[in-house]
Amino acid sequence: MIYRLPPLNALRVFEAAARHLSFKEAAAELHITQAAVSHQVKSLEDYLGVELFRRAGRGVQLTEAARACLPKLREGFDALAAAVEMIRERGAETELVITAPPVFTARWLMPRLADFSKREPKIEVRVVASSKMVDAGALDAAALTNNLDLRDESSGVEIHLGAGDYPGYRSDKLFEVSMVLVANPDLVNKENLLKEPAQLANHVLLHDDAMDLVAGGDAWRKWLEAAHVAEKVDGSHGPHFSSNILSLEAASQKLGVALALKPLVNADIASGRLCAPFDIEVKPLGSYWLVCPEVIADRPAVTAFRNWLLKQV
Fold first, then answer.
1. Is there a contact between 28 and 34 (Cβ–Cβ < 8 Å)?
2. Which end of the chain is more exposed for a tag (fewer CB within 10 A), N or C?
3. Bond before 263 cis per omega within 30 degrees
4. pLDDT digits (tens, 9 = 90+) for 186-244
């Protein structure tokens, strides 16, 4: 069968410009000039006989024709990338990029990563901590995975805290989490300042943005409601931190009490660095998932990491 197609490079430029809704950003991604993007789009419009973009302020908007064809075009590029992936030799690939939430990276992954390096010495690991791996409200937000190009040649996997619904990605569930209160053990064992939840009215509550995201709202309010002391304890006051790692460190230094995720904080509790004085747990809507694009899911480095990680959990 003879396929009547416009130049593939023009289609590639159009897809990038449509994804960014910006010729400038498409040019930066493709390492070409903005003028070259305009030229390729114009040539594609001439070939098809339809307008694909309309100017909108400093950016561009897709025409109805462009919006209609874009999903199928992306499916075609993904299928083409998958076909090339089957042909390309990946046996010598040795680099793996792991992107994960900061607290997961520090509290759970790092203590175990030496074992992976020992088992797979030829795989060079690069770890990236990113709070974007916590999906909005512990639910899946497609925008977070749209930035990952399925045609990228690097092997990368992501750890997401979410509901696990990622079209076009292979997802493996790692474990569920629960939100608990943690404090310096001295507050409970020596100073007797925290024997029941109502006593939190006399303590500083440490807030962090990541925990609010995980809880799908005000994390402290939800925990205090579960403890039946929301009317006795004002959960709106206290310092705010950008990461759970910072709030946990502040709690260990007796700057206040914090919320944490089990099992990520289990090691801190076992070592006596922190304690969980109450059996009250609030379960968020999401779990931890290992996520990677289907097109690279069977690469040797990715397969090795997935098999090792699933054994760890």
1. no
2. N
3. yes
4. 988 877 789 999 999 999 999 988 888 888 889 999 999 999 999 999 988 899 998 88
Band of the pLDDT at 151, cuts 50, 70, 90?
Answer: very low
Rounded Cα–Cα distance for residues 128 and 110 (Å): 12
Q: Which two tokens stand for residue 185?
A: 């053990």
According to DSSP, the residues that pair with 242 across neighbouring strands are none
Query: The dihedral of CA 77, 81, 82, 86: what is its sign?
Result: positive
Q: Tell me: the pLDDT tens digits for 243-268?
A: 889 999 999 999 999 999 999 999 99
Residue pLDDT, tens place only, 153-187: 457 899 998 888 887 789 999 999 999 999 999 98
DSSP string, the chain: -------HHHHHHHHHHHHHT-HHHHHHHHTS-HHHHHHHHHHHHHHHTS--EEEETTEEEE-HHHHHHHHHHHHHHHHHHHHHHHHS--TT--EEEEEE-HHHIIIIIHHHHHHHHHH-TTPEEEEEE-GGGB-GGGS--HHHHHTS-TT-SS-EEEEEEE----TTEEEEEEEE-EEEEEB-HHHHHTS---SSGGGGGGSPBPEEHHHHHHHTS-HHHHHHHHTT-TTTS-TT-S-EESSHHHHHHHHHTTS-BEEEEETTTHHHHHHTSSB--S---B--S-EEEEEEEGGGTTSHHHHHHHHHHHHH-
Tokens describing residue 295: 């097109």
- Residue 129 pairs in a beta bridge with 100
Q: CA 157 to CA 261: how far, in whole Å?
A: 22
The phi and psi torsions of 191 (rounded to 5 degrees) equal: -95, -10
Q: Show Cβ contacts of residue 254 under 8 Å, excluding neighbours closer than 6 positions.
A: 184, 186, 187
Average pLDDT over residues 133-156: 48
Burial class (CB in 10 A: 0-12, 13-18, 19+), 91: exposed
Segment 279-294, tens digit of pLDDT = 999 998 789 999 988 8
